[in-house]
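Section 5.1 Outputs to date
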Amino acid sequence: MTMRRRHLLGGAAAALATAFPALALAQGEWPQRPVRLIVPFPPGGGTDATSRLVADRLNLAMGWTMVIDNKPGAGGNIGLDAVAKAAPDGYTIGMGQAANLAINPSLYAKMPFDALKDFTPIASVALQPVVLTVRRDSPFKNLQDFIKAAKARPGTYGIAQA
């Protein structure tokens, strides 16, 4: 892990920790039980790895017990729906991202939650790059090659979704 990523995750853990004092004051000693961190993607991916690093940092720094609960499916909608329907007691938090909070509402005709009304962001925990790729034997060697070809032949090229 790079130093920048460690610094970012350390800062994210601190930001999350500072988001919870109001709960501690309102409910006495908090947390009194493990905090569930719902990851709306399967184990082993970037969101899962980032979530586990944040949970580990909070467990160490704050003495909390955070439990990762992977709930994949529907581009993250299943997991975030579980967060939206959880009791509002601070014992369930979710790892949202642009895919499930900003993009999915424009892709799905019906969402199980309202990304703007059902959630309160408490910390930004990571920045993840998005990379365009082509086959090694493609005529495109960089983005400019692709743009030039697309402008020369409108409607010929597109982006495939998995």
